[in-house]
Amino acid sequence: VVLVTPSYAKTPPSESRFEQVLSTAHALYKDVQAGANADYIPALAKVDSNLFGIAIVTAQGKVYSKGDVDTEFSIQSISKVFTLSLAMEQQGADAIQEKIGVNATGLPFNSVTAIELNQARAVNPLVNAGAMATVSLLDGDTDKQKWGSIAHWYNDFANRKLTVLDDIYKSESATNGHNRAIAELLKSYDRFYADVDLALDVYTRQCSVGVTTKDLAMMASVLANAGVHPITGKKLMEPENVSRVLAVMTTAGLYETSGDWAYQVGLPAKSGVGGGIIAVVPGKFAIAVFSPKLDKAGNSVRAQLAIDYIAEKTDVRIF
Ligand code: DON
């Protein structure tokens, strides 16, 4: 997608302006029709393409929102950020770097070539290979242990009990042969750390978790607040692990267009093929935007435009 930043005067980063900025972003991009729903997971093709929600949660826990922010959709690859966070807290930052990797692939999210080009590594935890390897690395070797810890962790970030969207889970389970091949390939290189069927199924379920745009902004606000949940006050992550997760989001959060994103928008972010994108302004706030139509790399077109606009108007680009 070509991001065109409007050349309006910048808004001071005052919270009182958030509502206005969100409303304007919504009005500016609600009629953009570029892109298409993901259809390699059949259930995603059926989601209403016109849905568009924008939410901000500040590091103090204030919520601002506009549009379809209470509609549930599948979290998809945005889940990778939170499973990475859990694995890093459990296993330590070195284990992530050594056993999975933290370099950019520069290639699509489900690339097999990236594995072959990187000495049989999964490459990084935000592409499919690395995300499945991250699930394999989590404590426990049963579904109950791995899924239980993920579900509990996501709920802590969202501050509510999330559920799996069964239609998405079934549709994705029936069509995830490519991911299975990736996991088997990693296993053959001793870069996969649990049973393939088990980790693949847990990964597929985590991608099918239903979230609203507000949930995603709430979850990401923990990363904006150095690992402490702004509402519950619970310390979920070490601040140095938050920094590392944000580093991987910067290099790989939008896959092969992560460089363009950092260059243009200048914020750590993560997309999902369900149409969501989260972006984090460290110490200040988190943004989540949802709209299903994706560009060729698998990133929501309207979400990219809205986040770019919000970053510009609130003057929070960190690059
Ligand atoms: O494994 C998959 O292909 C999906 N469950 C997630 C991919 C995804 O969200 C890529 N994101 N932009």
Structural commentary:
This protein is α+β, with helices and mostly antiparallel strands. The protein has one domain: DD-peptidase/beta-lactamase superfamily (Beta-lactamase), CATH 3.40.710. Helix content is 45%, strand content 9%. A 5-stranded antiparallel beta sheet has the order 2-1-7-6-5. Strands 3-4 form a two-stranded antiparallel ribbon. α3 (79-91) crosses α7 (143-158) and α12 packs across α13 (258-264). The longest helix has 16 residues, at 143-158. The mean pLDDT is 94.
CATH-defined architecture: 3-Layer(aba) Sandwich
What is the radius of gyration? Answer: 18 Å
For the biggest β-sheet, the strand order reads 2-1-7-6-5
pLDDT below 50 for ≥5 consecutive residues: which ranges?
Answer: none
Q: How many strand units?
A: 7
As a percent range, the share of helical residues equals 40-55%
Distance between the termini: 20 Å
Catalytic activity: L-glutamine + H2O = L-glutamate + NH4(+)
Keywords: Acetylation, Hydrolase, Signal
EC number: 3.5.1.2
Subunit structure: Homotetramer.
